[in-house]
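From the shared-data thread, chain only:
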Amino acid sequence: MLAHIHIWNFAIVEQLDIEFESGLTVLTGETGAGKSILLDALNLALGDRADTSVIRHGNDKAEISVTFSLHDCPEANRWLAEHEMQSEDECIIRRTISRNGPSRAFINGIPATVLQLRELGEMLVDLHGQHEHQSLLQRDIQRRLLDDYADHKPLLQAVADNYQHWLALQEQWQRLSSANQDRDSRLELLRYQVQELASLDLQPGEASELEAEHKRLANASHLLHTAQQVLGILEENDESAVQHALNQSHGDISDLARVDGQLQAIAELLNNAIIQVQETVSELRHYADNLELDPARLQEVEQRINAMHTLSRKHRVDAEELVQLLPRLQQERDDLEQADIKLDGLQKQIQQAKDAFTKSAGKLTQSRKKTAKLLSEKISDAMQGLSLQGGKFDVQLEALPESRWNAQGCEQTEFLVSANPGQPLKPLIKVASGGELSRISLAIQVITAQAARIPTLIFDEVDVGIGGRVAEIVGLQLRALGQHRQVVCVTHLPQVAALGHHHLQVSKQTGKDTTVTEIKQLDNNQRIDEVARMLGGIEITDQTLSHAREMIERAQI
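Structure, as C-alpha cells:
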C-alpha cells in the first residue's frame, strides 16, 4: 500500500509531503492546479524516463521518495528478498534527477536500475487512465487476472510441474540422441580411456602421497647423511656432544643448588633439556635406521607419477581429479552402449509426461473457459452502469499450437471489448477512447478486486465525459473497490469527490516571481467547501454548501 510520498523541486513543486491511507482517496483541484504532478512524480519513481525539464526552475536537482507498506504484497516482498533489498514490511523507493549528471535510483537505500524500478513498481501500483503504462493491456496480466479470479493456483502449479518434467525429458532425449549420432567413434574412445584409467587404478589421495614419497626417496642420501651428522652432535659418547655437555652442566648446577636453593629451578630445566635431547636422539636414530636408499622403488614411483601426469594432461584435469573422472567416463560409456534401449525408454517417458501435462492443462482450459464466460458476463453488466450502455466485454481464449505450449498451459488470454452497441469486439489495447478505457478498467477491477494482486490502484480522471447519475455510480464503484484495495482517484466531478474516504486538494499559489503547487489533506468542513466549489460556479451559495454537505454525509451512510 502507498504510505507516503515526498517531492522536492519537481516541476512547480518546491517541497511536498503527503501521507496516504487505505480506502478511497480523491484528489481534486481547479484546472491547471497541477493534479497530474503527483502522478508524474510517482511514475518517475517507478521507472519512467527521467528528463531534466522536470527539475524546478532555478534548481539543479529534483528528488522523489515513495514509501510503501508491504504487509499486503507478498509478491513484492519475494522480489525484494531475491534482490537482497528487503527491509521488513516496508519499501522506500527514491529517485533523483540532476542537471549535471545521470539520474539515480535507490530501493531501500540500495542503488537500483530503472528496469528494477519498473519490475517492482508493477507489483505495487496499477495506474488506470490516459497513460501509456497500463497493465491490463498486457496479455500476461490478463491471463493472471483470469487465473486469480478462478483461484487456479493449485492447478497452475500442477500444469507447471508437468510441463517442466516433460521439457526436462525432451532435453535429455535430445542430448542422448545427439550423442548417438557419433556413437561408434565416441564409444571406441571412451572404452580406450576407461581401460587406460582403470589400468592406472589411481586411489583417492594417492597422487599427493606419491609426490611426498618421491620427494623422500629422491632425497634419501641427503636425509640419511644429515640425520647421522646431527646424531654425532647430540650423542653422549663424545665429550663435545650436546648430551655430554648438558649432563656435566646439570651436575655442576645441582651441586651449587645445595648451597643456593634459587638454582634448583635451573637444574630442573637442564634435566628437562637432557630428557628432550635423549628422546630426540632415540627418534632420530630410529628414523636413520629405517631410512633406506631404494633406487628401484624410486624408479617405480617416478614411472607411476609420469603415467599419472600424462593422463591428467591428456584429460586436462588435475592429477587428483583422475579418480573422479573414471566413473564419469564409465557412466558415459554405459549410456552409449545402452543408448538405443534408453532412447526407446525415454520416448515412452516423454509420451507419459506429455499425457500428464495435457491432462492437467486440459483441466485448466476447461476451468478457464467456465471462468471466462462468468467474468465476461459480470464485467459486461458492470459496464452498463458506467455510461457504456450496450457495451460488451469478452474474455477470449485462443488455443496455442503445440510448439507454443508453456508452463501456463495451452492457450493465451485476451480481453476483447465493444464499448458501444453494434460495434465489433476488439482487443482492449485497441480501444480508442481514453475515457472508455478507464471506465472499462474500473469495471474489471471492481469485479476482480477480491482476487487481484496489486495493492494500490490509481485512476486518472476515469470520469471523463460522464456526469449526473453515472458519475455517482462511478463514485460508488470506486468507494466499493476501496473496501478491498487502496484507491487513489484524480477527479473533477463532485459526485465522485463526495464519496472518498479521504480527500486531497491541489492548489497553485502564484507570487510575483514564483508559482508553487501545494497538496493538502482536507478536514470535513474543507471538504464541504471543495465539493461546493466543484458543484457551483463563481459564487458559492448557502444552497450549494448545503448540497455539498448532504452529498458527503450521504456517502458516509
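The first helix runs from residue 35 to 45.
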